[in-house]
Write a structure and sequence with these properties.
The complex is a heterodimer. Chain A starts with 5 loop residues before the first helix and ends in a 5-residue tail after the last helix. The longest helix of chain A has about 35 residues, at about 65-95. In chain A, helix 2 packs across helix 11 and helix 3 packs antiparallel against helix 8. Chain A contains eleven helices and no strands. Helix content of chain A is about 70%, strand content about 0%. By secondary structure, chain B is an all-alpha fold. Chain B folds into two domains: about 1-45, no CATH class; about 90-300, MetI-like (MetI-like fold, Orthogonal Bundle), CATH 1.10.3720. Helices cover about 70% and strands about 0% of the residues of chain B. The longest helix of chain B is centred in the first third of the chain and has 36 residues, at about 25-60. The radius of gyration of chain B is 25 Å and the shape is globular. The chains are: A mainly alpha, B mainly alpha.
């Protein structure tokens, strides 16, 4: 399409290089730290002077990390599943059906998406303790679903508007109820949008720290980001820097895999709800 | 999973439409009923986790309630608000939060715009650049915060070594700068992608025509691109501002709020989990909620930001 003079091409190439370097250096630094021996950690160079796999060996055999990692995966997947199912139902209604109160729902979703989480921590902490949900999986899943829903409703209603709805009409003409039309015809077409939404919601759950440290007290339900700070001073590890860096790398790997395989979907999902012409 | 089924069974009947609209056709009524049934579970979960706790927080904020002395719990009206608003801790935390928000959002806007241009104009390596720039967006904030913390640890980190073995996390101003840099690194890709979506709405022909008419690059940017991108920019700014105002993770890992670097979220957390003071903690929660509401109102009324999603269903 556009053609550049060599000079312009060099300029854009430099800009690209700057972007890549700036984005990657903090991540590569973590990788480097995670392979440094306890002695080499005290050397600020980006390339480890002495390599070891011991940091990974340490955390991957310690229940102090494995259990939280399992919690992160389990809580993230269950929250994502519930969020996407509930959000799909609501987004279908928003995109397709006529009923009063639609703008109230959208306004409420916006309000919750931007909610200052800390404002909920104190009352939810009290409520969860009273209900026996404190330090349990549901104690994190319920708020994660609540905060995944606005994201899901936005993204999915944007996707649902792009679906060829004549098919739904055709199904109704053929005698399907609106509910059957939803399950049999529209849901399969909506699958790509639902995958995108699932990724965004899962990333949000995977990333959460404030709720995770507030509503957990042991590794029974503590997620990986919340567990890392407790590596420090533990008798298992002599120097916590290496193990923490290794844990940080481990919880970053799923992100990198998602980004590599689904970058188009993630970009489409991020921008669908927010920018419209 | 239990919440899911529970919400559906308890919620659907109460949300059923009133039967008085007799003039509605059978089909329209069925559509309404289906609409309410489909949104009911989502609405119930969202209300249960946000609206109810906020009302409960208002109630708690009017009480003297410390978990260390539960027998001393008592309704005390607005005394907690007086205590917080006359405390220097609150005002310092608010000041730190506002400074971090203003600087990180402003710089992120400029850098995000540059990133959007790079992504927009790059031909050969667009996929690579976009993939790489998504990593800061996706990475767990805590993991990135550890990277920054170790990078600035004297005689251990590469950034500290590059800056004369400095220890910026131990002084207020420098630590706040480090926190702002960490925020910018993390959020610039998100801003860039939102702006890129706005940028792709600018017709290429319009830019070419302006160029033929002798408009400079700067004029094309300010007179054509910016006005056309205004909705995208305002929505991105609203998102980023409200998100930045609730900053917690980066500060918690980098400084734990020491040396006067705590944000309002850190202050609220400390009052709950270190002081065990539910009354004061709830008061801080409500005050943060009011601040966020004010920011949103300023954006929507002052700048004419369309609430994102407000046009859903109109098309």
């Amino acid at each position: 399409m556009a053609t550049y003079t060599p000079r312009q091409a060099a300029g854009w190439a430099t800009a690209n290089l700057v972007v890549v370097v700036l984005a990657l250096i903090p991540v590569l630094w973590l990788v480097s730290l995670s392979f440094k021996t306890p002695a080499a950690v005290l050397d600020p160079s980006l390339w480890p002077a002495a390599w070891t796999g011991g940091n990974y060996g340490g955390i991957l055999t310690s229940s102090q990390f494995l259990r939280p990692l399992l919690n992160s995966i389990g809580i993230g997947l269950i929250s994502t599943l519930i969020s996407v199912v509930l959000a799909s139902m609501a987004a279908y209604a928003v995109a397709r059906l006529r009923f009063p109160g639609k703008s109230v729902l959208i306004g409420m979703a916006l309000l919750i998406a931007m909610f200052p989480l800390i404002a909920l921590v104190t009352p939810l902490f009290t409520i969860e303790r009273a209900l026996g949900l404190f330090n349990t999986w549901p104690g994190l899943i319920i708020p994660y679903v609540a905060f995944g829903l606005p994201l899901g409703i936005y993204t999915l209603s944007a996707f649902f508007r792009e679906i060829p709805w004549e098919l739904e009409k055709a199904a109704k003409v053929d005698g399907a109820t609106p509910f059957q039309a939803f399950i049999r015809v529209i849901a399969p077409l909506a699958a790509p949008g639902m995958v995108t939404t699932a990724i965004l919601v899962f990333l949000a759950c995977w990333n959460d720290f404030l709720l995770a440290i507030s509503f957990t007290s042991t590794i029974a339900s503590r997620t990986a980001p919340a567990a890392m700070q407790y590596f420090s001073g533990g008798s298992v590890f002599t120097v916590p820097t290496g193990p923490i860096a290794a844990a940080a790398v481990v919880i970053t790997i799923p992100i990198i895999i998602f980004v590599l395989f689904f970058q188009r979907r993630i970009v489409a999902g991020l921008t669908s709800g927010a920018v419209k012409g | 999973m239990s919440t899911n089924t529970q919400a559906v069974t308890t919620g659907a009947p109460t949300e059923a439409p009133p039967g008085r609209k007799a003039e509605l056709s059978e089909g329209a009524r069925a559509e309404r009923r289906l609409g309410f049934m489909l949104i009911a579970p989502a609405v119930i979960v969202m209300l249960a986790v946000t609206a109810y706790p906020i009302v409960y927080a208002i109630y708690l904020s009017l009480e003297r309630y410390n978990l260390a002395q539960p027998q001393d719990t008592k309704f005390i009206g607005f005394a907690n608000y007086g205590a917080v608003l006359s405390s220097s801790y609150w005002w310092q935390a608010l000041e730190v939060t506002v400074i971090i928000t203003v600087f990180s959002v402003a710089i992120t806007l400029v850098l995000g715009m540059l990133l959007a241009f790079v992504l927009h104009r790059t031909i050969f390596t667009r996929g690579l650049v976009r993939t790489v720039s998504l990593i800061p967006y996706g990475i767990v904030t805590v993991a990135a915060a550890y990277s920054w913390q170790y990078a600035w640890t004297p005689s251990q980190g590469y950034l500290s070594a590059a800056f004369n073995n400095s220890a910026p996390l131990t002084s207020q101003v420098e630590a706040i700068i480090v926190i702002i840099v960490a925020e910018i690194w993390k959020t610039t890709p998100f801003m860039g992608l939102l702006l890129l979506a706005g940028l792709s709405l600018v017709p290429e022909d319009l830019l070419k025509a302006a160029k033929v008419d002798g408009a400079t690059a700067w004029q094309r940017f300010t007179k054509i691109m910016l006005p056309l991108m205004k909705p995208a920019i305002l929505v991105a700014l609203l998102f980023r501002t409200l998100d930045s105002f609730r900053i917690f993770d980066n500060i918690f890992i980098l400084t734990q709020g020491s040396h006067g670097t705590g944000s309002v979220s850190i202050l609220g957390y400390d009052n709950l989990f270190n002081a065990l003071n539910l009354g004061i903690g709830s008061t801080i929660s409500i005050l943060i909620f009011i601040c966020v509401a004010i920011i949103a109102v300023i954006f929507i009324l002052g700048f004419g930001t369309a609430a994102p999603g407000s046009d859903i269903g109109r098309r």
